[in-house]
Structures are given as structure tokens and as C-alpha cells.
Amino acid sequence: MSTRLPPDASVASAERYRPELRPEVRVSDELLLGDGTVHLIKNTESGQSFKVGTREHFLISRMDGSRSLDEIGAEYAGRYGRRLSDANWQQLLGMLGTRGLLAGAPATAPAQEAAPKAPETANLSKAQRTLLRGTLPLVADADATAGRLHHAAGFLLSRWWMVPLLTLVVVMEATLVMRADELALATRETFTNPVLLTATGALLWLSTALHELAHGVVAKHYGGRVSEIGLRWRLPSVIMYCTVDNYLYLPTRWARVATALAGAVMNLLFLLPFCALWLLAPVDDATQDALAGLLFLGSIQAFAMLVPLPPLDGYKIVGQMLGATELAASSSAYLRLAVRRDTLAAGYPRRARIAYTAYPLLCLLVLGALAAGAVSLTYFLLATP
């Protein structure tokens, strides 16, 4: 199958050619970016991705092998009031073919056009790994590993399990809030006991590892693909990571929100048995303090991941809820224009103006609450002998 119209393209050739995207190509929902909207397109086989506008997406989304160029062109003309010329088709199909997105085109794009990986997800080569900084994949087939984990624990994602578990989490956190003073004092005592502090730190590290795996399991539940599971170190920090390759291309907004939220929920679920021990088990004072410290620090760990700042999970959640990509940068650019009363700010769509104003207000509210909580906690600890 040809992926381009011939130079002497005619109506007949347009009627015959039925373009079709490769099965591994994913197209995102419409996302705000700056003063416009875009769709992200990714070839999951090559890892290459790029952005297209609304009109290009209108055409690309109809390339399913069932419509001819002439039929797609007629739909486009009905929507936008003009037909595309053969030169327009040549340009679009040439771009898609060059990037290996059309069935019948090469599977991967030329190396010089490959999109760079994001710094936070790209693996360092062996030559780039150092004692102070690097990543190390732990499994050969991360997607298969995530699939096995989903097979073993995926039943917990059903409403019959998730609703009771989340209810227990809410009850646990309400209890911890009511006894926050006791938890804070016990945590201070834990920091004076190296053995208990080490044990608490090890459990928090395990919670972090489960946090990452939870992202992968929930992504698999919604049809996502996990590309890597490994260790990342920026000494003195050593953490586990799990990269969901097609997070932005999961089928629904809820699937993307749930995948981003899964890590924090896992952190809180991890604390449930320790909360039961703290409340019910007859343990000595030192162990009681260690359990309280774990609950206190573990809850902070979970909710800290929901702060809406990049690259935290909360930022991804807010971005999906507002239907935006590169939300922080776009919001910052819009606010600079709005503060200067630049006429360009008025050119932003209403939806974008609301999103780019709501995001910084949310950040200020969350950071203000965290600052107030930190000040109150510090004052309490210093005032208590």
C-alpha cells in the first residue's frame, strides 16, 4: 500500500487510497497547550511522539482504513468549509509516512527525527551511570511483570474491594488527624532511636516501591503498557521507578487519573495493618512510638505526592482534570500576559483562561495549607518538653 499520493494524483486515486494508522499508534484526547489545543500522537513501537492541531487530528482520527481520502476530504470540507488540495494531502501523508505511523510505511522513523526522551523517564547509558547518579532496570520485560502483578492483585481494583478499602483509609486518616499531637510526639521519639528509625525508613522505602508498582498495575488494568521497572539513584536517595509508556494515551480521562492516583492510594493502603497494630495490639512503648512514626511519616509521604507541582502525581492528576498538557508552563505564560494586561491574554479561549487561573490558585492554596501545618507542627514540638 502506498503511503503517499502520486505526483499526478487524481480524484480516482483519492477514491482508491484508504489510509490507515498502524495498530501501535496512539492518539490522545484534545489537550490545552498555550492559547490553543493539541492532540499528542505516539508510535509506541519506536517511542516517537509529536503534537498536531485540531484540524490535523480531524483528518488523522479518520484514517482507519475504511474511508478513502476523498471521503475524509468531504468530511473535512463539511466541517471546515474547504477541501484540501493534493499538495495538502501530500504534505500530511508524507509526514505520517516518514514517521512510520501509516500501515505500509516503515515501522520506525529515521534516527534524526526521533523525539528525545523526557529526562525523568530516560535511562542513562552504562557510560552515564556513576556512583552518584544513574538508573538500573531490574526486569527484562517490565510489561510482562506488570501483567503478572495485575493478574495476581487486579481483583482489588473492583468496586467490591476498592470501596471498603478506601473507606478504611478515610477512617484511618480521620483517626490520625484527631490524634495528630500524639503522632508528632511519638515520631520525635522515634528519631532518637536509631534501630527503630532504620526499621521505619525501610518500611517507608518499601511503601515507595509499592507506590511505583501500583502505577504499573493500574495502567495495565486500563490497557496501558509498562516500559521499565528499575532503580534510580541520586545519592543519597535510591528509589524504585515504574514507567508507564503510554500514560497520556490511556482510553479515558478517569483511567489516566486513576493511574496517577494509584501510587498515593497504595501508600495509604500499606499503612492499614500498621494502624490496626498501633490501635489494638499490646506492644511496648518504643514499638508504639515506631508505629506512630510510620503512620505519621507514611501519611505525609502519600499526601505529598498529591501536591499539584511537577513532576509529582498531583500535577498529573490536575493536568488531566483540566484537560491540559504542560500546564505549569502554559499557566505561567498566560499569567505574565494577564498581569501586564497584554491584549494577547484576551485571545486565549475561555476554557484556557479558567484552567490557567485555577491552577496557580490551587497551588497557592495547597502550599499555604502545607506551610501553615508545618509552622503549627514546629511550634507544637518546640513547645512540648
Q: What report would you give on this structure?
A:
With 385 residues, the chain is an alpha+beta fold. Helices cover 57% and strands 11% of the residues. Strands 1, 2, 3 and 4 form a four-stranded antiparallel β-sheet that branches. A hairpin with a 4-residue loop joins strand 3 and strand 4. Helix 8 runs parallel beside helix 10 and helix 9 crosses helix 11. The longest helix has 34 residues. The N and C termini lie far apart (79 Å). The N terminus is likely disordered.
Summarize the structure.
By secondary structure, the chain is of the alpha+beta class. The chain is built from 14 helices and 7 strands.
Overall geometry: elongated
The parts where pLDDT drops under 50 for at least 5 residues are 1-12, 109-127
Oligomer: single chain
Order of helices and strands: HEEEEHHHEHHHHEEHHHHHH
The profile of the biggest β sheet is: 4 strands, antiparallel
The end-to-end distance, rounded to whole angstroms, is: 79 Å
Give a count of the beta strands, DSSP E runs of length 2 or more.
7
Structural class: alpha+beta
Summarize the amount of helix as a percent range. Answer: 55-70%
As a whole number of angstroms, the C-alpha radius of gyration is 25 Å
**Relative strand content:** 5-15%
Mean pLDDT: 88
Q: How many helix segments? A: 14
Q: What is the topological layout?
A:
Blueprint: H1 11-16, E1 25-27, E2 31-33, E3 36-43, E4 48-52, H2 54-60, H3 69-80, H4 86-98, E5 133-137, H5 142-153, H6 159-178, H7 180-190, H8 194-221, E6 226-234, E7 237-244, H9 253-280, H10 285-304, H11 313-322, H12 327-339, H13 343-346, H14 350-383
Antiparallel strand pairs: 1-3, 2-3, 3-4, 5-6, 6-7
